[in-house]
Amino acid sequence: MTSLLIFFVLPLATIIFAIVLEKIICNPVLVSLLVFAIYLIIAFLVSSTGTLAILIILAIIYAIIAFITAWITRLIKRIKCCFNTLNNRNNSNCCNHRNCYNENNSLTLTSGNTQISNGYPIEYINTILGNNSKNCIR
């Protein structure tokens, strides 16, 4: 019964919890850190002296699972947004709203009439991806 809990129930609960947190927090690193903190607290509360190391290793593994799940969730949301924007199905410009579609490390600058995103002019990126995809780059 314990192995079923460790290898099936807790990873499944971690995946579901990571998806929900990614939709709320919109940052895979914070999701994995929060999951790690929760499992670490549980490890210290539940463990005896001999099982603490195993529970800490499981907390690290569950945090990695949460990060991968949150990253995949973010990627799916971003692809869905860009697909909708490219096909003109969504006129609300969802990539520019606060829906976690902007990368934290991307930078968009305006210099005169030219916008620059991550070092490339927006016109160059639009040429590569098409005219309607500029909202997914920012």
Described by strand count, sense and barrel closure, the largest sheet is: 3 strands, antiparallel
Going across the biggest sheet, name each strand in turn.
Answer: 1-2-3
Number of strands: 3
Strand content: 5-15%
Percent of residues in helices: 55-70%
Mean pLDDT: 75
Write down the Rg.
20 Å
The number of domains is: 2
Low-pLDDT segments = 96-107, 131-138
How far apart the termini lie comes to 49 Å
So how many helices?
5
Helix and strand run: HHHEEEHH
Specify the overall morphology.
elongated
Could you describe the 3D structure shown?
The chain is mainly alpha-helical and 138 residues long. The chain has two domains: 2-86, no CATH class; 108-137, no CATH class. The protein contains five helices and three strands; from the N terminus they run H-H-H-E-E-E-H-H. The chain has helices spanning 2-25, 28-46, 52-86, 122-129, 134-137, and strands at 108-111, 114-117, 120-121. The protein has a three-stranded antiparallel beta sheet with strand order 1-2-3. The protein is elongated. It starts with a helix and ends with a helix.
Summarize the helices and strands and which ones pair or pack:
Elements: H1 2-25, H2 28-46, H3 52-86, E1 108-111, E2 114-117, E3 120-121, H4 122-129, H5 134-137
Antiparallel strand pairs: 1-2, 2-3
